[in-house]
Amino acid sequence: MSSEMIVFFILAAVAAISGILMITRANPVNSALLLILNFISLAGIYLTLNAQFVAIIQILVYAGAIMVLVLFVIMLLNLQDEGPLREELSKRHYANVFFALAVLALIIEVLGWQGGETLNAMQQMAPNAVQNGMVQNIGDVLFTSYVFPFEVTSILLLAAMIGAVVLAKKRFP
Q1: What 3-state class would DSSP assign to 103?
Q2: 162: Cβ–Cβ under 8 A, 6 or more apart, which residues?
Q3: Together in a domain, 77 and 110
Q4: 153: helix, coil or strand?
Q5: 44 Cβ partners below 8 Å, 6+ apart?
Q6: How far apart are CA 171 and CA 65, in angstroms?
Q7: d(CA 104, CA 167)
Q8: Which of 84, 118, 150 is the last residue of a domain?
Q9: What is the residue range of 119's domain?
Q10: Which end of the chain is more exposed for a tag (fewer CB within 10 A), N or C?
Q11: How many domains does the chain fold into?
């Protein structure tokens, strides 16, 4: 197993653990910080998959701008701790945990059964992945082959921004 695969599995474990911790925390600020950790670990996974552009956008847009917005809303609403989430676990909760563990065991078994063949096949799917993930190549395709959908999307986002300003504007009698 290569060092790149080891880093991938470590980052995947960090993403899974931070995701689970994020949804089980009572404090919304702690949940938001764990979500940032999740976004950063996902960016690391994208880097191991040679998707440099997606990794940079993940950090800039999600871990940066979106999380600032989420923290701003949390602090604006002045949310308090919801208290400990210690309710009685019913049989349904135990069944859900058992089902999730069974699916996880099945995935690990399938990956273990195929062994290195699956990893080699995944690495052979895109031999030029490093070139495809570069910002320059994505920009070339975006502004040549997909220029019309790109411009339509920009007009749609502009209309949404104008609509948000109109809706947020105070109306004076």
Answers
A1: helix
A2: none
A3: no
A4: helix
A5: 7, 11, 55
A6: 29
A7: 46
A8: 84
A9: 87-128
A10: C
A11: 3
Same domain assignment for residues 12 and 68? yes
- 27/83 Cα distance (integer angstroms): 8
CB 24 within 8 A of CB 43: no
CA dist list (Å): 55 to 49, 51, 144 = 10, 6, 23
Whether 76 and 2 share a structural domain: yes
Kindly list the distances between the CA atom of residue 122 and the CA atoms of 48, 107, 112, 128, 161, in Å, as whole numbers in the listed order.
13, 16, 14, 13, 41
Contacts of 129 (CB under 8 A, 6+ apart): 49, 50, 51
Task: Specify whether 98 is located in the same domain as 22.
Answer: no
Measured from the Cβ of residue 112, the count of other Cβ atoms closer than 10 Å reads 9
